[in-house]
Amino acid sequence: MVKKPSALPRSFLSLRRLLRRSISGRHYRRTTSATGARVAAPAQDKLKDRTVLVDVEGWLLRSPLSAFPYFMLVAVEAGSFLRGLLLLLVYPVLCLLALIGLDLRLEAMVMVSLFGLREREVTRVSKAVLPKFFLEDVTMEGLEAFKKAGTVVAVTATFPRVMVEGFLKEYLGVHAVVGREVAVAAGRYVGFLEEEHAGMERVGAFLEETEATRSKGDGAVGLLGAVGPMHHVVSRYCKETYVLSEADKKTWQPLPRDKYPNKLVFHDGRLAFRPTFFAAIAMYTYVPLGIILAALRCLAFGVLPYRVSVPLAAATGMRSRLVVGPSPDASREKNEAGGRLYVCNHRTLLDPITVAAGLNKPVTAVTYSVSPVSELLAPIRTARLTRDRDQDRRRMEALLARGDLVVCPEGTTCREPYLLRFSPLFAELTGEVTPVALDTRVDMFYGTSTKPGAKWLDPFYFMMNSRPEYRVEFLERVATAPADGEEGGHGHSIQAANRVQRVLGEALGFELTGLTRKDKYMMLAGNEGVVSGGAKK
Ligand SMILES: O=P(O)(O)OC[C@H](O)CO
């Protein structure tokens, strides 16, 4: 049927539209003009100090966006690998159902991933694990559009609020997150996701409240994707709306790492890759082989001399690169304190072992919060620190008098290219130290964790990677003793520690920070990272 042309003249229709907009105070804009020419997202200054409502999936995150990897991450990291496997098995069935018109994917993924999990643990994963992956999905133009906004309200129609809140608030500085809720009983998720309209009603109620308390009368601005359930709510509450076409969104760029509003220094979780459906299949298929490889590699490093275990591990795919500094022989000399003191940055628990392998001689490593299982299996001598300054100092002096000692003054591992603050105690033990720059690469599993119950498996997970990589570089020695006329004491040891940190940062190309073990554990685990238990001889 051909549509009957309107009897009203064009100019009258335009006037009517204008009047209607003026009365309701709403303006719809598309980021693509009627002529098809590209129009940029609203200028930052236009949204300055205003309340902006952002559609997370439609505007902020790149398209097409697959929710599966995020649910897989929650299933594995807050649940277990078994739960992840269940999600993987259920997913093809859900896709088939969606093809015949019964799209239960979201509800079923929520149920499988969250059912029975503690609310606290899912919130932790949302802050500690998911942000790394969400940040890779953020579009630069999408984020920059609301950089100067006064209040940013992020609205999600796909993800349950709990999954995106950590990333949006901690890393993008969003003020409020509104989205669908998952039912909780006695602190655990029951798995039922509330209806879409309930989520949108919450958005409406939130905006009504926000607008009522606003002092300025310029109204909220909506930033929306081309389609989605939010259009209706936004048209009721926002005075101005920008709708992004799919074609325009495709031209938007991913947010580069150096433009993250808050640096991603710390993150947690075992999976070092984005678990898409096919990547997850590959991982589960590989795991039996990975377990065998890890057992062989651990055994080789545990019982064989380094000159045999290193090439053997290399034959299984493990890569080690040793870069010896300008005076390799000097590192073998003893100094007046007894053995040499090797100071390295901390990537995994295996750092001191790789230093020993690089030197091809036994060393002692001082540790903190290492699981008794790791201590037992370590092929080198380990000695626990207590965090009691005097006691630790005496202990380290005694160890150094007996032979070479390895310290990681950051006190905890860091996965990203940053160096944490160096605790200065090491600088008081001897007149010079040998800095050792360490870097690692993994393809499937991270060999570090913050959950106390998971730590004993850290080295094993590292060894489970198909091609785990270590780069060890012995650097030129650095003097730590006060120069003539220079005052010693705590102030001096802080300066010396900072100097060593700087030398390592330059060698690795890592950024220096003043962050500490406490900062890391507060952020990732919600505790101070203090472990109980005395020092082991
Ligand atoms: O488990 P992390 O990352 O806190 O590191 C533990 C260190 O090896 C302490 O010596």
Percentage of residues in helical conformation: 40-55%
> Span between N and C termini?
90 Å
- The helix count comes to 20
Q: What class do helices, strands and sheet pairing give?
A: alpha/beta
Count of discrete domains: 2
Distinct small molecules: SN-glycerol-3-phosphate
For the sheet with most strands, the description reads: 8 strands, mixed
DSSP E strands, number: 18
Principal-axis shape = globular
Low-confidence stretches at least 5 residues in length (pLDDT < 50)? 1-27, 32-39, 328-332
- Proportion of residues in extended strands: 15-25%
If you compute it from the alpha carbons, what radius of gyration comes out, rounded to the nearest whole angstrom? 28 Å
Mean pLDDT: 87
Keyphrases for this structure?
537 residues; alpha/beta; Rossmann fold; eight-stranded mixed beta sheet; six-stranded parallel beta sheet; 20 helices; globular; disordered N terminus; binds SN-glycerol-3-phosphate
Give the helices and strands, then pairings.
Elements: H1 10-24, E1 27-30, E2 51-55, H2 56-60, H3 68-79, H4 81-99, H5 105-114, H6 119-128, H7 130-137, H8 140-145, E3 151-160, H9 161-172, E4 176-180, E5 182-185, E6 188-193, H10 196-212, E7 220-224, H11 230-237, E8 238-243, H12 246-251, H13 277-303, H14 306-315, E9 319-323, E10 341-344, H15 351-359, E11 364-367, H16 372-377, E12 381-384, H17 389-402, E13 405-407, E14 418-419, E15 432-441, H18 458-464, E16 469-474, E17 478-479, H19 490-508, E18 511-512, H20 517-524
Parallel strand pairs: 1-8, 2-3, 2-7, 3-4, 7-8, 9-16, 10-13, 10-15, 11-12, 11-13, 14-18
Antiparallel strand pairs: 5-6, 15-16, 15-17
Helix pairs in contact: 3-4, 3-5, 4-5, 6-9, 7-9, 10-11, 13-14, 13-18
The structure holds SN-glycerol-3-phosphate (G3P).
